[in-house]
Design brief:
By secondary structure, the protein is mostly helical. It contains 6 helices and 2 strands. A two-stranded antiparallel sheet has the order 1-2. Helix 1 packs antiparallel against helix 3 and helix 1 packs antiparallel against helix 6. The chain is globular.
């Protein structure tokens, strides 16, 4: 049987490699303030494409539940305890912001919040860990 290769890395140890890819894309978006302002606020995306903070949260919380229970995601979307720990830190940063501000603000209001940098930093660290593991 041919081994599935995805983004240059063997993905046979992950049950849902396509969703891992979407998860990584969501983390990447959270780690990139320039992209956030361009895509989420100014809507500078190619025709037919759409993105926003809420969409990225839905991927990480609802679609994959990787932020809700990172330990349960090993083998499904995550490869290691390092990835679990990185995603747990990201979840804590997002939860802290939501605890402070609620969940009904606009993307721009979240991006301007003092706590937003903690999300960007945690996402950047998580992205580095995810990329290091393929």
């Amino acid at each position: 049987m041919e081994e599935l290769v995805f983004l240059g890395s063997a993905m046979s140890d992950i049950r849902f490699p396509e969703m891992r890819h979407e998860m990584v894309r969501a983390v990447k978006a959270l780690a990139d303030p320039a992209y956030q302002w361009s895509a989420w606020i100014r809507r500078e995306l190619p025709p037919g494409e759409y993105d926003e903070f809420t969409h990225r949260i839905h991927i990480l919380c609802d679609d994959t539940q990787v932020l809700e229970d990172p330990d349960a995601a090993i083998g499904t979307y995550l490869r290691s305890q390092k990835e679990v720990n990185a995603m747990r830190c990201l979840a804590q940063a997002i939860d802290s912001l939501f605890d402070e501000l609620g969940t009904d603000l606009s993307d721009e209001e979240y991006l301007r919040a003092p706590g937003w940098t903690a999300i960007v930093d945690a996402a950047g660290a998580a992205l580095s860990t995810l990329r290091a593991n393929g």
